[in-house]
Design goal:
This protein is an alpha/beta fold. It has ten helices and eight strands. Keywords: Hydrolase.
Length: 317
């Protein structure tokens, strides 16, 4: 059982502690010190243990699109009842830019498609350290370029590292006629560690993601110095947020990345962009995998699906 830090013991309920214990049994806190191949194997095993059966009523197929380094694998989830979806969700998985792929978030993407009635496209972007920044960003941008040709409004969505990629693409193409109609970011890492936001100190030893872990993922993305002013690397480093897509950010209160969401929403609002921040008390990084075992996580996932549905419906009107 995970040692219960007195700082977190009163903030986290028994269902989330059980989720933390189960996660740590597959993916121990020191996994970040292992070699990359081991990290991926351990992460894949953990995701498989938590994976839920896809909802019925979906057509799921694997495809590929042209990218900067050959073909980019994608997986499309299409609700049977929706002949022409009001919007398409492009989903970018989490995993610190190092682990994860189409399988790790398969059930999450399927459930979003079922809950919203939208088509969901999961992007298997290239991972570090074999493919450093901006490879992952370029792959998500290429996926947007290909899918936008279908003519549907697009909602960019992602968790953790995937939230970073979704936000970065939204900012980069915000003034184009085919710009995304919305963005939903789930406990995203947006560059707050570079800015030294308070949550990186206050939640430095949070369960399932520590500030030390964040620094590893930050440094593995590049060779040499971390970019200081590159919004495709750290969206919070952008100087201009005007014209960005309407945004909903959902963060976990017990997470070093928490203040990235609050700060990003403030930047968007200051630029006149519609933006909402939902901070979930008692939840930890990676809680999407707890949505079937924790009432708090279950309700948060419902709020996430509702946000995607609202943004997509507004774009389709």
């Amino acid at each position: 059982m995970t040692k219960r830090d007195p700082f977190y013991a009163p903030r986290i309920d028994e269902e989330i502690w059980a989720f933390i214990d189960r996660t740590d049994s597959f993916y121990p806190p020191d996994t970040v010190d292992a070699d990359i191949a081991t990290q991926r194997a351990v992460y894949d095993e953990m995701c498989a243990a938590f994976r839920q059966k896809r909802p019925s009523g979906l057509s799921v197929r694997d495809e590929s699109i042209p990218g900067g380094d050959g073909e980019i694998p994608i997986r499309r989830y299409q609700p049977h009842a929706t002949a022409e979806p009001a919007a398409i969700v492009i989903y970018c998985h989490g995993g610190g830019f190092v682990v994860g792929g189409l399988e790790s978030h398969d059930d999450v993407c399927a459930e979003i498609a079922a809950a919203t009635g939208f088509s969901v496209v999961s992007v298997d972007y290239r991972l570090c350290p074999e493919h450093r920044h901006p490879a992952a960003y370029n792959d998500v941008l290429a996926a947007f370029e290909a899918i936008s040709k279908e003519g549907n409004p697009i909602i960019l969505c992602g968790d953790s590292a995937g939230g970073n990629l979704a936000a970065a693409v939204c900012l980069a193409i915000r003034h184009r006629p085919d710009a995304p109609a919305g963005q939903v970011l789930i406990y995203p890492g947006l560059g707050g560690e570079i800015m030294g936001l308070p949550s990186y100190r206050e939640e430095a030893h949070a369960p399932l993601l520590t500030t030390r872990d964040v620094m590893f993922y930050k440094n593995v993305r590049v060779e040499g110095e971390v970019p200081g002013n590159d919004p495709t690397y750290a969206p919070l480093s952008a100087r201009d947020f005007t014209g960005a897509a309407p945004c909903v950010i959902v963060t976990a209160d017990c997470d070093p990345l928490r203040d990235d969401g609050a700060t990003y929403v403030k930047r968007l609002r200051d630029a006149g962009v519609e933006a909402e921040w939902i901070n979930e008390p008692g939840l930890v990084h990676g809680y999407l995998r707890a949505r079937t075992s924790s009432e708090r996580a279950k309700h948060s996932f419902a709020r996430i699906c509702d946000a995607i549905a609202r943004l997509g419906a507004a774009a389709g009107r």
